[in-house]
Prior knowledge:
- The chain is of the alpha/beta class.
- It is 50% helix and 10% strand.
- It has helices at 6-12, 31-39, 92-117, 120-141, 156-164, 166-170, 183-205, 216-237, and strands spanning 2-4, 21-22, 27-29, 44-45, 63-65, 70-71, 78-82, 85-88.
- The strands form 3 sheets. It has a 4-stranded mixed beta sheet, with no helix packed on it. Strands 1-3 form a two-stranded parallel ribbon.
- It is globular and about 60 Å long.
Amino acid sequence: MALLTEADVRRMSAEGTRGPVVVRAHEVLSPGARDWLREHRVEVVYPQGRGGADGAETPPGRYRTLFGGELTEKPEHMTHLKGNVLVFKDHPRIRFRGMIDLLEAELLLAQQAAAGEGYPALVSELEEVLGFVRRCVRFDVLDEPVGEFTLCGYGPEELREYSHYPEKHFGQPHFLPHYTDGPALLAVNRARTVARQTELAAYAAFRDSDGNVTRGDMILALNRLSSLLWILMIRCKAGRYSKER
């Protein structure tokens, strides 16, 4: 029997931002791991069922589907929506999570480019953005509200204002990126375009059959995220970042 420690479940859940944590038949949670999962509200799935308090086996755990069916095994073409609820892998919520994953990857590459050009302040700001994007997974999986937020010192209204009127605030008008722009600026631009695609994926994922938005907070957060990335590009173009060699 393999023991899953707190360190294991923290890694498996990306520090509580992803779930569920799947405990297989040959694994058992340590008390510390169980307490940490409960404290951080990370769901735990036992596909094989859980043993009873007296050590007797309970019936095998069943997966549920959105269309009312029950399965004893997870098909390869399905994945977890929440807990033991399975959906097809092209479900809008799963597509949205895939876009979040892609956005994380682009932000990491943007950080690498910024570090390569010697912009430590930009690297730090992108790290803050990355952390916020990773929390979006938690907001989705646990149905948590985004709540009030600031990104790199800007609130939602400031992000809208500064991104719409960059010349007023930074002395740099709107511009079209060019291949002669530095690697960091171009990498942030690419991340910005993915953020916009992620916002569209969120709209597809969080709306009812009548087209009404069910997670306006998530869509607002992603909209302002792309605004922030445009602001970072503006600041790059305006020479607002000091280089370190």
